[in-house]
Design brief:
Blueprint (H helix, E strand, L loop, with lengths): L15 H27 L1 H8 L3 H8 L1 H18 L4 H19 L5 H15 L3 H9 L7 H8 L2 H20 L1 H22 L19 H10 L1 H32 L3 H27 L7 H24 L3 H11 L2 H4 L1 H10 L6 H32 L6 H11 L3 H11 L3 H9 L4 H5 L2
Helix pairs in contact: 1-5, 1-7, 1-8, 1-9, 1-10, 3-18, 4-6, 4-18, 5-6, 5-7, 5-10, 7-18, 8-13, 8-17, 9-10, 9-13, 12-13, 12-14, 12-17, 12-18, 12-19, 12-20, 13-15, 14-15, 14-20, 17-18, 18-19
Length: 442
């Protein structure tokens, strides 16, 4: 007699070794992405001086082109990732953006550097959305905030590479060498992804069946119906505006106000990004691995508290005239820009059906990168020039511009609190359950 065996989501789970290998490789992808993006922050002042630009001009050159093409290509690349092989898209994208990063180091003028940064933005559009979607199909819902918290370790590691290592290389060999040092390894990692990562079946750990990929407009409508998803998108976007916007100008701020060179400024921020960022991210991943944190309402409340408390030292860091006090406040503030990343990514994966996950990630990244690389970078640059008047931007004008941006962390707290209201119902609507215990019930 023939017996039909119906596989449960748990029976489709990968081995422990395979899923942690995937997370570690994806973490490396994210690290290289962050390093390639934020190496510009470290060498911002040398680029400005070399190309003879104002603060607004260097912000326009380094932030706007990457952000514009990143967000423009992010939606179509995510549409593709929700329908085609995510592993192949990720590997190709990484090779492309790493190649253009290396080309940034070969440029000799404004327009060639601009073209290379556009290439980086186009390539990076195919990075994080498929990576998040792949991880979501290796871990069940209540483990995704933890798994994506580990993935988010790539942010502090990448920021350290883009600050400390890139600063040392730039100080020794010039700012162009820093781009070459970061671009070439990315091509190698992209090849490793193609050769060693297996494309998982979509939605295999969800309770609801895979119904096929919907049109972009339908995905956007569903996102707005998911009120918690909308507020998580806004909260993570404002966190990027606040935290990464301030961090973008921190090396320049230290160089102007405390007479540091590019290597010294990069060493200060680089160590905080590496040590503080890893401790904050790993600690967050551990906290969210606890059974008590399976309830998504506890996740958003913890994020609200963390961002709210660390907004205060983010203001003091740029208000004080003491380098010692500034360093102490940066040690409190900079780690905070990491701990929200993984949990927000995990929440978004749980608030989206399987065939909308890359798209939801893309919308979240679109908001975050517009706020960070366009609004923050351009806004701070223009305000610094405005506050400086005819004398030209200096340390004082940059300080005033950063103090205007610092309180925006409280805006993110509002959205985390609003997400708490509907997050349980919205998660059930998207994937059919909240915890693995609930999914295991007959």
């Amino acid at each position: 007699m023939n017996t039909t065996v119906i596989e449960s989501p748990q029976s489709l789970a990968s081995s422990l070794v395979e899923r942690w290998y995937v997370v570690i490789v994806m973490c490396l992808v994210y690290a290289i992405s962050i390093a390639d993006r934020y190496v510009v922050s470290t060498v911002l002042e040398p680029i400005r001086l070399d190309l003879k630009l104002t603060d607004a001009g260097v912000g326009l050159l380094t932030g706007f082109p990457l952000a514009l093409f990143y967000v423009s290509f992010g939606i179509p690349m995510s549409w593709l990732a929700d329908r085609k092989n995510r592993r192949n898209i990720l590997a190709a994208s990484m090779i492309i953006w790493s190649g253009f990063t290396a080309l940034c180091g070969s440029t000799r003028g404004y327009w060639t550097f601009l073209a290379a940064r556009i290439g980086v933005g186009i390539g990076e559009a195919g990075g994080t959305p498929p990576a998040n979607s792949i991880i979501a199909d290796y871990f069940p819902a209540d483990r995704r905030p933890m798994a994506l918290g580990v993935f988010a370790l790539g942010a502090p590691i990448g920021a350290w590479l883009g600050a400390d290592m890139a600063g040392a290389v730039a100080h020794a060999y010039g700012w162009r060498a820093a781009f070459l040092a970061l671009g070439i390894p990315g091509v190698i990692v992209g090849t490793i992804i193609y050769l060693t990562i297996r494309e998982p079946a979509r939605g295999r750990l969800d309770a609801l069946p895979d119904t096929g990929a919907p049109p972009i407009v339908e995905s956007l409508k569903f996102l707005f119906r998911q009120k918690a998803a909308f507020h998580v998108v806004m909260a993570s976007g404002v966190c990027a505006l606040w935290g990464w916007g301030l961090s973008w100008f921190t090396p320049m701020f230290l160089m102007r106000n405390y007479d540091l060179n590019v290597g010294e400024a990069g060493a200060i921020t680089g160590h905080i990004h590496l040590v503080g960022g890893i401790v904050a991210t790993a600690g967050t991943a551990w906290i969210f691995s606890r059974p008590a944190m399976a309830d998504p309402r506890r996740v958003v409340w913890l994020l609200a508290a963390g961002v709210g408390l660390t907004t205060i030292p983010s203001f003091i860091a740029f208000w004080t005239h003491s380098l010692m006090v500034a360093k102490a406040m940066l040690w409190l503030f900079i780690p905070a820009i990491y701990f929200y990343i993984g949990p927000c990514m995990g929440l978004m994966q749980n608030l989206a059906p399987a065939r909308m996950r890359a798209m939801f990630t893309a919308w979240s990244l679109l908001v975050g990168n517009v706020f960070n690389l366009i609004v923050a970078v351009q806004g701070v640059g223009f305000m610094s020039d405005l506050f400086a008047g005819s004398g030209g931007a200096d340390g004082h004008s940059l300080r005033l511009a950063l103090l205007v941006l610092a309180p925006s962390g409280f805006w993110a707290v509002y959205h985390f609190c609003m997400a708490n209201r509907t997050i349980v119902a919205d998660q059930k609507r998207a994937i059919g359950y909240v915890t693995s215990q609930e999914l295991a019930k007959p």
